Amino acid sequence: MSVSNKNVNLHVNKIKMVRPDKNPKNCDLDLNVNWRIDFIKIDEKILKYVCVLTTIDEMPLNFAIQGLIECEDHKVDLEKRSDELSPLILDKGMEAMISMVNATKDISVQIKPIPEAYLADTPKINSLKGIKIIENMQ
């Protein structure tokens, strides 16, 4: 990622997502998103950010991404470049949120029953009677 021809490293340290209990019925969602990005200067070289995305309407969802921004040129004041950094962080945050929503959606899987002939040939598992569990081993 570059900001005004300066190389910037964008690190993601934490991601948090709270999704609704039920998926919406509609497959084509228009996500309206409220967002904010807070910047905190750690030192002259590092700027911490927290990007919070909250969807409204069809699929209520809360998403936050937290990380650090470093610039190769330590003379660059990253705080003054927040107008350039915000769209980059927002784009990456939206991409991550959509990926996580897709990865955590409900899916239906049909499991085929095990044939009776297979179950009859399978040896029975012995019970655990007589096995002593030793706790606090050092």
Report what the structure shows.
This protein has one domain (2-103). It is of the alpha+beta class and 138 residues long. 20% of the residues lie in helices and 34% in strands. The chain has 2 helices and 5 strands. A 5-stranded antiparallel β-sheet has the order 1-2-5-4-3, with helices on one face. The protein starts with a strand and ends in a 17-residue tail after the last helix. The radius of gyration is 25 Å and the shape is elongated.
Jot down its keywords:
alpha+beta; elongated; 138 residues; single chain
Largest sheet: 5 strands, antiparallel
User: How far apart are the first and last residues' alpha carbons, in Å?
Assistant: 49 Å
How large a portion of the residues is in β-strands, by DSSP E? Answer: 25-35%
By oligomeric state, this entry counts as single chain
Main sheet: strand order: 1-2-5-4-3
How many distinct domains? 1
How does the helix and strand content classify structurally? alpha+beta
The portion of residues assigned to helices is: 10-25%
Shape: elongated
Q: Topology as H/E string?
A: EEEEEHH
- The radius of gyration over CA amounts to 25 Å
Average of the residue pLDDT scores: 77
Number of E-type strands: 5
| Low confidence ranges | none
What is the count of DSSP helices, taking H or I runs of 4+ residues?
Answer: 2
